[in-house]
Amino acid sequence: MAHAIALNFEDGVTRLIEARPGETVAEAAYRLGINIPLDCRDGACGTCKCRIASGSFESGDYLEDALGPEEAAEGYALACQARPTGDLVVEVAASSAACKTRPQSVTATLAKVARLSPSTLAFELDVAGAFGFLPGQYVNLTVPGTRETRSYSFASAPGTDRLAFLIRDIPGGLMSGTLRGAAAGLALEFTGPSGSFYLRDVKRPLLFLAGGTGLAPFLSMLRHLKAKGTGGHPVHLVYGVTRDADLVEVDTLEALARDIPGFTFATVVADAQSPHPRTGYVTDHLPAAALHGGDVDIYLCGPPPMVDAVRGWLHAQGVTPAGFHTEKFAVSGTAAVPLKRAG
Fold this sequence. Notes:
Elements: E1 3-8, E2 14-19, H1 25-31, E3 49-54, E4 57-58, H2 69-73, E5 76-78, E6 83-84, E7 88-92, E8 105-117, E9 120-131, E10 138-142, E11 149-153, E12 160-168, H3 174-180, E13 187-194, E14 206-211, H4 216-228, E15 235-241, H5 250-259, E16 263-269, H6 288-291, E17 297-302, H7 304-317, E18 323-331, E19 336-338
């Protein structure tokens, strides 16, 4: 049986490949012209050492000098020996350029644009065939008529031919200004998928923290969990915005809460004058139960002050989560400025 492998390189580029029955990770990559670091091919040198971020595999035969038992326990493997027994996400210790590959370039067609609030637009792109990515990742979308790109996280589940995104409608913004009046059928180009902010195997409770259009990757993750399940682990999302009018996709979250056993969410509005039942910051509304005494994987996507505030809050609580994955984004007056991903 063939298995999908997502090769995630150090520069954030992801290439999705398929391993034929019996192939090692290295054999599958080389067959497709992706030259991941490799030397001996016999499990003796350790050059092809990589980390299996998720999925199951047979580790094969190798010398302890090439891969120690502590490294193996942490999920490391040798690409020349590891054979997938399920779909894998593999973290390659090299850049995509060094491995003689590059992000996938795709021409898509604008399917529709919808205004969700005075500050937020949603748009959908049609692509030829199902497009693979890891839930939580993003693409770099080229602004039509320019060489400028903007980075947007998928809001849709992986493996479909219609891709959904959220975008902050910025006065004077290049991409938001283009999409605001765009008609269906507009050709748009993007490269990707990219990013190290993606949902890993669910092994414990999950806590999702979203700020503004940082909700998008969580919609992708939740839609993925709806299809694949949570393994019985609870999932809690706290979604914070600045003003009441910025709250979007609440109906979608309510539907997902009905469809995903154990999924709950809360919305928070920062504006102290808001009539919303929860005002202030996300950290004001993090129930202790959602931290599970540190036995939790936290995913956080929002502007830099939010990310820093949550880090500080966790430190003050004396809680070190089992996993802590973050994505920062910033927005300027004329453009979205990506740190890792722009909103």
